Amino acid sequence: xxxxxxxxxxxxxxxxxxxxxxxxxxxxxxxxxxxxxxxxxxxxxxxxxxxxxxxxxxxxxxxxxxxxxxxxxxxxxxxxxxxxxxxxxxxxxxxxxxxxxxxxxxxxxxxxxxxxxxxxxxxxxxxxxxxxxxxxxxxxxxxxxxxxxxxxxxxxxxxxxxxxxxxxxxxxxxxxxxxxxxxxxxxxxxxxxxxxxxxxxxxxxxxxxxxxxxxxxxxxxxxxxxxxxxxxxxxxxxxxxxxxxxxxxxxxxxxxxxxxxxxxxxxxxxxxxxxxxxxxxxxxxxxxxxxx
Length: 292
Description:
The protein is an alpha+beta fold. 36% of the residues lie in helices and 18% in strands. The chain is built from 9 helices and 8 strands. Strands 1, 2, 3, 4, 5, 6, 7 and 8 form an 8-stranded mixed beta sheet that branches. The longest helix is centred in the first third of the chain and has 18 residues, at 35-52.
């Protein structure tokens, strides 16, 4: 009797439940169940219970970026490489239609100055106005002299942190001034999660709540980062321990609304964020913001 009892004791609970479902329950009219289904149902029930009674306040924030509008200035090594590629392209390329036309015009003029020039060769072009390639170049140069490109650097606009048109060669991130407890902080736009909505919908609502009405394209349904902080010990309770903020990335879709004086938001480069964000918050944000 000791041997069978020893074998029964060495079996796991899952094997015993599976064996029970194949014998006693299988011979009756009841629904069969397995140990895997039992474990899955237990985990789902536990997850639902924890989500309902979680002591953490859930929030969603949006990392809204304005991509560069103009290309960045070349570094010295990039400038030398670009010049080398231009020289290689010039040496290996074929003549363009305009260059071929310049050669034809030069050949025609050389024939006219020659002693054996025959005017009958130009019979077809007598009734047409002949426009030389050099004339075209002169007109193009005149248009180029009249063209005034927009400045790449505008000191007055670049100093305005609320303008979305500042620092056109850099990627900018939107910060909003928000009330957290008894103080105002500069943060990524965020709001508290409400029951019945996804975290992305919460992030979209946080962006829509800004007075400027920015239009953005969200890059994913999944968060790109999370920031967790606990309340002071004096303020903690069993139902409220702290807050978890989930970040979602988005790209500004259009040029953005005009600048409003004393706006509660700023457009900052990545190198400028550390002057406004707290170190722990900045450490989390720095991981997913790309300085393009």
